[in-house]
Design the sequence.
């Protein structure tokens, strides 16, 4: 029997592979700090699980050289670490965009969800 | 609740993260805890009024320490699709493996060919000349690499 937990697991797995590119796409607009990123991704329903899991992901993006960070003073509260997209990060995002369109179209065609 | 007791609430939660991430490399664990500490500090500053409920909500939204640690552990395993450079280096490895396999195969062919040649061809000269002192066995099965004939020392058999 199909259970709700399986639906949740599916949603989480589908988001997992794409979340890092959603982060890159948000940073493509303008630099953002962690709390702001978490709120926007959460509001858009793009987070695979909870806000805290965003930080291991940001750490990976930093180590692969796709994002860079810089500290900026804030009018209220402590300084904030802003994340910006690097050239490599931009290239990775463009690569993902092309792959995603091809992948999405292929899945749409097979599972019967293509827009006619 | 006072500021210091709210601080303690946060510290306890961060300790739970550190414990859940105990198997991670030290610098990775320290970075994770520092990132989360910073998140809490910024989110607390954004609260209109700092209350216990507000701080607890921040921690709840961050989530279960075990889930966060698991996500960080996931990053320790090399992840597929890690950028152009990653793809290039993986491609390089496969090319190296392919070249090695082909090279070994070619060397094997050459060795087998040489063995076959030395078994079938050289024996005609054996009696005439070189192997008077240490004749090679004539009945070496084809395909088994035969030892190369010893180099001819001029005058050795005279």
Sequence:
């Amino acid at each position: 029997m199909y259970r709700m937990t399986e639906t949740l697991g599916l949603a989480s797995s589908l988001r997992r592979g794409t979340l890092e590119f959603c982060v890159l796409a948000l940073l493509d607009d303008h630099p953002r700090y962690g709390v702001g990123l978490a709120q926007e991704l959460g509001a858009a329903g793009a987070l695979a699980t909870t806000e805290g899991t965003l930080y291991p992901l940001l750490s990976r993006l930093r180590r692969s050289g796709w994002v860079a960070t810089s500290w900026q003073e804030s009018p209220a509260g402590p300084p904030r670490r802003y994340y910006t997209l690097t050239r490599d990060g931009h290239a990775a995002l463009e690569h993902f965009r092309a792959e995603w369109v091809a992948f999405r179209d292929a899945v749409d065609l097979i599972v019967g969800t293509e827009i006619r | 609740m006072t500021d210091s007791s709210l601080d303690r609430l946060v510290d306890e939660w961060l300790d739970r993260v550190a414990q859940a991430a105990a198997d991670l490399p030290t610098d990775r664990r320290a970075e994770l805890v520092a990132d989360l500490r910073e998140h809490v500090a910024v989110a607390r500053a954004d609260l209109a009024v700092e209350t216990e409920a507000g701080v607890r909500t921040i921690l709840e939204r961050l989530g279960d320490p075990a889930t966060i640690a698991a996500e960080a552990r996931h990053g320790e395993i090399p992840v597929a699709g890690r950028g152009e450079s990653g793809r290039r280096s993986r491609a390089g490895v496969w090319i190296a493996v392919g070249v090695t396999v082909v090279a070994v195969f070619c060397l094997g062919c050459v060795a087998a060919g040489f063995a076959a040649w030395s078994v079938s061809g050289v024996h005609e000269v054996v009696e005439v000349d070189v192997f008077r002192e240490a004749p090679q066995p004539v009945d070496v099965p084809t395909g088994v690499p035969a030892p190369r004939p010893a180099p001819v020392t001029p005058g050795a058999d005279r």
Summary: Chain A has one domain: 4-111. Residues 4-111 of chain A form a domain with the Arc Repressor Mutant, subunit A fold (CATH 1.10.10.10). The CA atoms of residues 73 and 79 of chain A lie 4 Å apart.
